[in-house]
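Example record for the data management plan.
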Amino acid sequence: MIDIHLYGKLRRFARDQDPTSPSIVAVTWESGDTIRSIVLRLGIPLTDLGSNMFLNGRYATLDATVQDGDRLGLFPDDMQLLYKWYFSPSQGSAAAKSRQGSPDSTSPIGGGTKSEG
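Corresponding structural encoding:
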């Protein structure tokens, strides 16, 4: 099973639409699943989906492969992160890198390139 957490206007695709309850949908995993295939299976129009998608707490894209037991967070197009550049789809967050002492040269927070020496 894959747990899908729906936020904002995407909550309407959850069975329980009570605004005080979590909007979590459990979907059966199928071999070859991507975020895109799951979104389409739920009936969520791609135009309603924002670019902020998180797979197991990491920023992801529609083409990211999903495995059984994964957790997916989906945000609508009207709930975009203010600092989208802070996350990298393939490498995790810049904050995690800076804690590891490896600043991301593409992130304003990362502090530029690491000096050699």
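Summary line stored alongside the record: The domain at 2-80 is CATH 3.10.20.30 (Ubiquitin-like (UB roll)).
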